[in-house]
Each structure stands twice: as C-alpha cells, then as structure tokens.
Design a protein that fits this description.
This protein is mainly α and 402 residues long. The chain has two domains: 186 residues, Growth Hormone, Chain: A; 183 residues, MFS general substrate transporter like domains (Growth Hormone, Chain: A). Helices cover 77% and strands 0% of the residues. It is built from 15 helices and no strands. Helix 4 runs antiparallel to helix 5 and helix 11 runs parallel beside helix 13. The protein is globular and about 55 Å long. The two termini are 37 Å apart.
C-alpha cells in the first residue's frame, strides 16, 4: 500500500497515507456492519424485527448524510485530529451499545451513533487530495474505499459462521484500530495556511458556487438514487430472474468489484492526462452502465452475466475519478471542508431516496422493471453530459467565482 500511496507525495509531505489507512478500516467496519452484521445480529441474537433493522440502517445513513455539511464546517474551523477523534469516539460508543440494544429504539440509536464516525474521514481525505493529478489520486482513494467496503462483509460472513461474538469483536477492533491510528494525525492541519473565513462570509460564496453548478445538482442526486434503487433489488433479481445460486451471485459481485477496483487508478490517470475531454469519460461511462444493465436483464448465461458484471465495474471505474475531478472545480479553496461537506450531503440525499424508491417500484412492477428503469435513467444521465456546459470543471472554477 505504501507504494500506491506515494502518489500523494509521501508521508513526510502529506497525511493522506495515514488518513487512507483509517479510511480502509472505517469502510471495512461499515461494510461488515451494514451488509452482514447488523441484519443477522439484530434478528438472530437480539430478537428484533427486520423492520427495526431496516430503520437502524436508514438511521445510520441519515446521520452520515446530515452531518457531512456540519463536519465540513468544523474541518474549516478546528484541527483534523480533533474532528476525526470525536467522530470515531461516537462510532465506538455506538458499537459498544449493540450488545445491550435489545429494544428497537436503542438499536436504532446505536446504528445512528455509528454513522457519526463515518462522515469525517471521507471529507478529510477529499480535502487533503492535491489539485494536480486529482483524478489519479481519487482513483487510489476510491480503490481503498471500495476495497474496505467489499472486504468487510466477506470477512464478517466467514466469522459469523463460527461466532457472532467474534464478528462483534472484529467490528469493534476495526473501529478501535482506526481510532488509535487517528492519534498519529498531526495536530497541525495541512490547510493551516488557508484563511478561516467566518460562516456569514462563507455562505454567500458557497451559494454562488451552488448556483454555478445548478445544472449538475439534479444529476448528483439522480446518480446516487439510481444506484440505491439497484442495491434494493439486485439480490432478488439475481435469484428470481437470472436464476443464480448464492455462490454464483457472490462471484458476480466479486467480478464487478474486482474490475472496479482494478480500473480506478488507470482511468484516474487517463482522466488527468486527457482532462480537456473529461466529459467523455462521464458520457461513455454512463452509457456503458446503461447498456450493461439492460443486457444483464435479458442474460440467460452465467458466463455472460460475469462478463456484463465486469463491464459494469469498468464503467463505474471510468466515471468515479472523472466525476470527483469535475466537482473539485466548484469547491472554494478556502472552504474545502464546508464545500465538500455540502456536495457530499447533496449526493447523500440520493442515497437515501434510492433504496425506498427501488423497493416501491419493485413492489409495483417487479425487480426487472427496476433494472430497466435504472438503465434508462443512467442512459439519460450520459446523454445530459453530452450537452451540459462542463468546460469550467477542467481545472479552473467558473470565471465569476475566481
């Protein structure tokens, strides 16, 4: 990992390697908790209903999303170490409550507290990335993020087969290790030279930035909402429509995830090298996602499903670094924390809407219709990026805001 993280300038020049290690542990714990541990521990060990578990997971995402803007503001006012420590301490408190959370309100509270600690570290990583070769650096961070998020449930499922207590200790140990690593974060923020602008002066500038990117805002919400729709229906779609076994579905996810992780850094480098044509990374990526999803809904062969899942992963890897570099042009240099917090909040709104919408549409018309609708929406997003004025995002902010 050290060789990969040297792309950020080395430990002596940047805290990104340390922050990336913390991010890996935090996302490992998040994937293990939300996808594997909480549903099984809540129902089998604590005797709670699936409705309570669903409400707890929603509370986690709600806390994470709502707090992003506030944490962004705090990062512009206080030391990174203080904000990250406070967040991870809240996460530890949430996990410590789980063994005693045999009543719904306490279980939901514990999951919500756990969400508090997720918000700071991602925003900190976003603010620490240097603007030169941003897409390449974000490719590395997205690789770490997806790697942790994907490995968490795999390892947790294996441990859960032997002991729920061992799985709980794994979760607790991951967050505790992240908290210990946070002790080594420098007391001096890397953005110490940045002027701390009072909130009353920050808000008008942010309002101008949001107005400048007003055409992108609907797409930001829609992209994450459509992804959330798919998460809700993919397991049942794979078993009922594609007739895949549990092992085959796991291989499908592994193929998509592996090619996403493998493609992030090379596509990030290409996006930086051809930054003048960055819009076409988005256009081609979203069109490829749409085509892959549409073809997947008609696939009758497991081998073809694997190929299409791999194409989906590569398409996602094409979009992510270019999209982050696009947004970076709209973040005020003196307000990186608040700016990235606001943008993350906007994207998080889609993440909250998507699963609910996906469930409702699936109940109305079935899982295949949700997949077709998602393919159509991704195609429309790609079509929009063909015509939206994105020239400002190729490395410089809109002229009126310089």
């Amino acid at each position: 990992m050290n060789a990969i993280l040297k792309r950020f300038g080395g430990r002596s020049q940047s805290q990104i390697p340390l922050l990336a290690a913390i991010l890996l542990l935090v996302e490992f714990a998040r994937g293990a908790a939300l996808i594997s541990f909480l549903p099984l521990y809540g129902t089998d060990t604590l005797g709670l209903t699936l409705g309570t578990v669903g409400a707890a997971i929603t509370a986690h995402y709600l806390t994470d999303t709502v707090l992003k803007m506030g944490i962004g503001y705090l990062l512009d006012r206080f030391a990174i170490r203080f904000v990250v420590h406070a967040g991870l301490l809240a996460s530890l408190a949430g996990i410590a409550l789980l063994p005693f959370a045999d009543v719904p309100w306490l279980f939901i509270t514990a999951a919500a507290l756990y969400g508090v600690g997720i918000s700071p570290i991602w925003i900190v990583c976003l603010t620490g990335v240097k603007e030169e070769n941003r897409a390449s650096q974000m490719g590395v961070l997205y690789t770490i993020w997806l790697g942790g998020l994907g490995a968490g449930p795999i390892v947790c499922n294996i441990v859960l087969d032997h002991s729920s207590r061992a799985a709980y200790l794994l979760l607790l140990g991951s967050v505790l290790a992240a908290w210990v690593l946070a002790l080594f974060i420098s007391r001096r923020s890397e953005s110490a030279e940045v002027e701390h602008v009072p909130l009353r002066r920050q808000l008008p500038v942010l309002k101008e930035r949001m107005y400048a990117m007003r055409l992108l805002l609907p797409g930001m919400v829609l992209q994450t909402a459509v992804a959330g729709m798919l998460v809700t229906v993919l397991p049942t779609f794979a078993t009922d429509k594609l007739h895949l076994t549990g092992a085959q579905y796991s291989l499908l996810l592994a193929a998509g995830g592996a090619l996403t992780i493998g493609g992030l850094m090379p596509f990030g480098k290409l996006s930086d090298r051809f930054s003048r044509y960055r819009r076409w990374f988005l256009v081609c990526g979203f069109f490829a996602v749409a085509a892959s999803l549409y073809a997947l809904s008609f696939s009758g062969s497991f081998i073809l499903c694997i190929v299409l899942a791999g194409l989906l992963g590569l398409s996602y890897a094409t979009v992510l670094p270019a999209w982050n570099a696009l947004l970076a042009a709209y973040v005020p240099p003196s307000q990186k924390g608040l700016g990235w917090g606001m943008l993350s909040t906007v994207e998080g709104v889609g993440g909250m809407i998507g699963p609910v919408a996906g469930g409702m549409v699936a109940t109305w018309r079935g899982e295949p219709f949700v997949v077709w609708l998602s393919a159509l929406l991704f195609g429309l997003i790609g079509l929009c990026y063909c015509f939206l004025p994105l020239s400002e995002a190729n490395g410089s902010p809109p002229k009126s805001l310089e």
